[in-house]
């Protein structure tokens, strides 16, 4: 059987598209009859020089400019589009389901007690507007008051990151608190977190923030780490490859409705690991604990940073969170241990040092008390998933 030549015009610069590529790779490994042409691509880039002379059998592309669209149409080969922009009508397209993504974010906020919620979008993307509309309707149906902000498109000629950041800062100042904010994608959510840091707003106690795409490089570099809705981009890429294969075999494929994949869930990190709390002193205490729990702090250290007596702190903490300040310190430390066990190759001794335990045995005892298993058992179970 002749190997079919397939070009991939998918950027490699973000987690969403890397997931799409992983899906295409999975298909090619299963079927083994494609010769794939992939070059480094940036979002919104001009058509690559090789495209006009390319002779192949089919293309999977994120078509997000008129220039790319015109060149692809001129090639007269089967095309599957992975963009919601729809620059070429009449070709099949695959995407992630925006309503389901918005619903996961709304449900995540409502479960944590938020009744003031907000959406921060990007005017340059059609999918951002769709997500914002779905977020508005779903949040209002859940009894929430909704606030919206839309920045100039990131790839618009007039876009200035400093100007847009200043706008987000001004918007945040006007929002009621506590409030939970959905960024249309991880980059936008990162901008919201940066604005919170500029305003010295406690995250997540006063403002909780969630993104979309679970781009690990962005999410883990954020301070605090960013929770994110996880689209099943691998599945989307795989199904796009199936569609293209069918088209290259001469099969007619419907183009009226997109092939949509459902998101996988929410990856919870520090930016939404909270309950809605309308108590500034307790919010400040929570922020101090989350920033310093791994430094072996005690409740007395928390009290030095807020204007409450120990009795008032204990009472209000228990009333609002259902646990004591000491239990919260231990919970944050154990969660940090879990991350280091599952996402690094650090030794138990190194993890103990990084989470404020003088001896490995103390960490093991504290971890087992909270989880019922030892750190080693937790690491073994995580590696098998």
TrEMBL record:
<dbReference type="Pfam" id="PF13377">
    <property type="entry name" value="Peripla_BP_3"/>
</dbReference>
<dbReference type="Pfam" id="PF12833">
    <property type="entry name" value="HTH_18"/>
</dbReference>
<protein>
    <submittedName>
        <fullName>Xylose operon regulatory protein</fullName>
    </submittedName>
</protein>
<dbReference type="InterPro" id="IPR046335">
    <property type="entry name" value="LacI/GalR-like_sensor"/>
</dbReference>
<keyword id="KW-0804">Transcription</keyword>
<dbReference type="Pfam" id="PF22177">
    <property type="entry name" value="PBP1_XylR"/>
</dbReference>
<keyword id="KW-0238">DNA-binding</keyword>
<dbReference type="InterPro" id="IPR009057">
    <property type="entry name" value="Homeodomain-like_sf"/>
</dbReference>
<dbReference type="InterPro" id="IPR028082">
    <property type="entry name" value="Peripla_BP_I"/>
</dbReference>
<feature type="domain" description="HTH araC/xylS-type">
    <location>
        <begin position="283"/>
        <end position="381"/>
    </location>
</feature>
<dbReference type="InterPro" id="IPR054031">
    <property type="entry name" value="XylR_PBP1"/>
</dbReference>
<keyword id="KW-0805">Transcription regulation</keyword>
<dbReference type="GO" id="GO:0003700">
    <property type="term" value="F:DNA-binding transcription factor activity"/>
</dbReference>
<dbReference type="GO" id="GO:0000976">
    <property type="term" value="F:transcription cis-regulatory region binding"/>
</dbReference>
<dbReference type="InterPro" id="IPR018060">
    <property type="entry name" value="HTH_AraC"/>
</dbReference>
